Amino acid sequence: MQQAQTRLAALTIATFVVGALLWAAFSARFTMLLDAPIAPVAVLSEIAPRPQNVEQVRPEPPEAQREEVQPAPTPAPAAPAPYTGEPPDISNPIWLSRPPSPERFYPRAAFMRGVEGQVTLACFVELDGRLTCTIEQEAPAGQGFGDAALAIARAHVMQPATINGAPVRGRYRMVVPFSLD
């Protein structure tokens, strides 16, 4: 018992000494940082002052070399006219982003009752690939499947349709099944 108390006392003293040494070293380091003079920051204008007269730096070319060459005006490329026709239908979508776990959108009350459903959405694919949808058909109605399908559609990003290489607004029909399998 006496030996255990002696070891505990020695360990306590050693811990105290190590702590005091660390505190002293840290305090000294911190004090040295505060007492160290701060070196002035060089400003670019002090290193290389700006010339007062630009002609002194760049001499004028001789008269023979002074011919001014006018560059030929380049015509601006003609921008394609914006597409104003009917939005094209997208049948083979290229998905850029999809929700990682669509099952999290399943309506809770329908899930608890074991109800399955299906929603058909009529969507417009905007120029940035986001979907703007309306509910075309919801079965069974009143179970929350329509709102869940709209939330799923908002989590998707699709490559937009293109006409003559330019993105245009397109139409897409999305069927969202809700199944408990």
Structure description:
There is one protein chain. The protein is an alpha+beta fold. The chain has a domain at 95-178: TolA/TonB C-terminal domain (2-Layer Sandwich). Helices cover 32% and strands 21% of the residues. The chain has helices at 2-35, 44-47, 54-57, 108-113, 145-154; strands spanning 95-97, 117-125, 131-139, 157-158, 161-163, 166-168, 170-178. The strands form 3 sheets. A 3-stranded antiparallel beta sheet has the order 3-2-7, with helices on one face. It has a two-stranded antiparallel sheet with strand order 1-4. It has a two-stranded antiparallel ribbon with strand order 5-6. A hairpin with a 5-residue loop joins strand 2 (117-125) and strand 3 (131-139). The longest helix has 34 residues, at 2-35. The protein is flat. The two termini are 67 Å apart. Mean pLDDT is 78; it is low at 41-48.
List keywords for this structure.
single chain; 181 residues; alpha+beta; TolA/TonB C-terminal domain; 3-stranded antiparallel sheet; two-stranded antiparallel ribbon; 32% helix; flat
Brief overview:
By secondary structure, the protein is an alpha+beta fold. It is 32% helix and 21% strand.
